[in-house]
Amino acid sequence: MSKKITTVYLGPQHPGAPGNVGFKVLIDGERVLDIDLIPGYLHRGFEKMMEYRRWDMDLVMSARICVEDPDHVELTYTHAMEQIFGIEPPEKAQYIRVIIAEFSRLASHLLWMMHFAGPIAARYALSWAVAAREEILKWFDYVAGHRIYHHYIFPGGVRWDIPSDFKEKTLKVLKIIKPLIKDLEEGFFKHPVFIKRARDMGRLKPREAIELGATGPVLRGSGVAYDLRKTLKYDAYKYLDYEPPKGDYGDSYDRAMVRLKEMYLSIDLIEQALEKMPYQGPYRWRIPPVTIPLGEGIGRVESARGEFVAHIINYSSKSKRTQTPYRIKFRGPTWPHLTTVLKHIITNEEITVADLPVLIGSFDACPPDIDR
Q1: What confidence score (pLDDT) does residue 279 get?
Q2: CATH number of residue 310's parent domain
Q3: Residue 116 belongs to a domain
Q4: Based on C-alpha coordinates, what's the Rg of the chain?
Q5: Which DSSP string corresponds to 207-271?
Q6: Average pLDDT for 354-368
Q7: Which of 60, 72, 134, 198 could make an SS bond with 253 (beta carbons 3.0 to 4.6 A apart)?
Q8: Contact, 78 vs 63, CB < 8 A?
Q9: Residue 352 binned pLDDT confidence (cut-offs 50, 70, 90)
Q10: What pLDDT is recorded for position 170?
Q11: Mean pLDDT for the stretch of residues 44-64
Q12: Which alpha helices (DSSP H) does 118-186 contain, by range?
């Protein structure tokens, strides 16, 4: 090690940074010795604002916590609120939620491809990812009336019924995006340059991943087959047949490959749901307007990046029902991935400055879910 250690700052406006965060990086020549996350560039105070708005308004606000995967945040909030109301959505709504959630996962993984491939000079991959994601955004507009934030999942079910040609339109979208994902697999994931840059770099062993708080594709990339869709069997996932993919070695390549395999899995889950879903029957149970009963609810879902949690406490000493929740707390998967996991890898492995975009990108961070 040389005698001259340099401190540099990466982000928040840098192609190698994952968004609205920065990093304080300690380097010796080209080797990264240590790294610390600098959040706070996008602090919006959503949790506090939700205490002063009606619970149905809070659902709309919750989606803004992670623009890349908004439906899973809505679903987390909805599950917690349904516990307070003491209701379970109709079976038809449970299947619709799975389809919405898996399209959200697909759109999120494709957006990750855009952020991941660009900084490592694989800009050709962006075209396939953008083309596939655009089809999904148009599908969301067709179903929910919005491209980015959808506000379609709602306590008691979904906001409105699906269109009459829902199955045909959905299968058509899947038919378009399948070959584009195949192009990504052949042209990017199997490219020798990407394999050389990602393989054997940023390894995270199974026990380390668990102890450091990793979830989602980061945890499964380390070979731990833990997925809340299988563990909790929420909504219609309990009716579907699947096995979440996992890695073998736990490096940056495995974490990336898990997301590729999850894209294919999402397509399969949507196709299963389309075949098994009852197209007749209610899509939502009516719940009392405006006010909510006193109570406490915890929602946990497997989002595109890992475990997302919503904890809602509704308490008032003056009445039995209120319009605004007493306290809402969200916990997203990004914080441990960009703190404990990232620091552990860098302090225990020889990581260079050129490795950083691949390593950080392999976590697929969503910084807004830190600044809540």
Answers
A1: 94
A2: 1.10.645.10
A3: yes
A4: 21
A5: HHHHHTT--HHHHHHTT----HHHHT--GGGGG--------SS-SHHHHHHHHHHHHHHHHHHHH
A6: 91
A7: 198
A8: no
A9: very high
A10: 97
A11: 88
A12: 124-144, 166-184
In a domain, 212, yes or no: yes
Q: Which two tokens stand for residue 50?
A: 């939700």
Tokens of 59: 């659902």
Contacting residues for 190 by C-beta, under 8 A, at least 6 apart: none
Residues linked to residue 10 through DSSP beta bridges, in sequence order: 23
Mean pLDDT for the chain overall: 91
Residues whose CB falls within 8 Å of the CB of residue 289, separated by 6 or more in sequence, listed in order:
none
Q: Which residues of 229-239 are buried (b: 16+ CB within 10 A; e: fewer)?
A: beeeebbbbee
Q: Given the structure tokens 């860098």, which residue do they identify?
A: 346
User: Residue 147 CB: number of other CB atoms within 10 A?
Assistant: 15
In total, how many domains does the chain have? Answer: 1
Task: Tokens for 176, please give them.
Answer: 């378009």
Q: What pLDDT was estimated at residue 318?
A: 55
Sequence-distant (≥ 6) Cβ neighbours of residue 288 within 8 angstroms: 321
9 falls within a domain? no
Query: Would residue 27 count as lying in a domain?
Result: no
Identify the weakest region by mean pLDDT among 75-79, 85-89, 117-121, 187-191. 117-121
Question: Which domain, by its residues, includes 266?
Answer: 42-332
CA-angle at 176, arms to 172 and 181, nearest 5°: 140
pLDDT of residue 186: 93
